[in-house]
Amino acid sequence: KQEVTQIPAALSVPEGENLVLNCSFTDSAIYNLQWFRQDPGKGLTSLLLIQSSQREQTSGRLNASLDKSSGRSTLYIAASQPGDSATYLCAGSIGSTLGRLYFGRGTQLTVWP
Amino acid sequence: GAGVSQSPRYKVAKRGQDVALRCDPISGHVSLFWYQQALGQGPEFLTYFQNEAQLDKSGLPSDRFFAERPEGSVSTLKIQRTQQEDSAVYLCASSYPVAGGSPNYNEQFFGPGTRLTVL
Predict the structure, then answer these.
(1) A43 and B91 in contact by Cβ < 8 A?
(2) What is the pLDDT of residue B105?
(3) B70-89: burial string, b at 16+ Cβ within 10 Å, e else
(4) Closest CA of chain A from B2, distance in Å
(5) Residue B1's pLDDT band (cuts 50, 70, 90)
(6) Average pLDDT over residues A72-94
(7) How far apart are the C-alpha atoms of A104 and B11, rounded to whole Å?
């Protein structure tokens, strides 16, 4: 069974810091990898999608990379802002399971002014 | 355009009651997924539809859970004889098809979820 670990579980930083969130999969045969943001009591907002032929994606202050050989992904947040406070979840699909996503437990991020 | 919608947003049920949760996917999205998210956990897969066909139901925790998508659009997740351990947020996601491609390649878009509390 695919297991997904996210480190750290929680992070509290002052505004303006550059952040690195980590995600690792026990099965490195990942097709797609998505990073999501979840605000309290809300659903998941897709932030970045790395497809099987890609290694990296960027959107604004966010950059995600995927190392398929190790099954590890990193989400980099530049110049963090209080509005970035949320739980960040990584999820991946593997070849044999028709698109179902395997999720980590998330990193709870707090950015204070 | 409209995103994935789910109803009700909140549901409180007494133990033993049956509940039905609805998902309206993004128009034209072929694939539809249901996930269960317990408090403090990441979402866990329940079941997957491609159009009206349920292709994977391996994540359904017991035979009290049943999902359908009879016309390939709206989906309903039904839980019979609810138990306290069923309390969770139920998330629905949909994705658009890549012609001839595997659903593995498609970005999933999530609804706001239904928070189910079983007393």
Answers:
(1) yes
(2) 61
(3) eeebebebebeebeeebbbb
(4) 14
(5) low
(6) 96
(7) 26
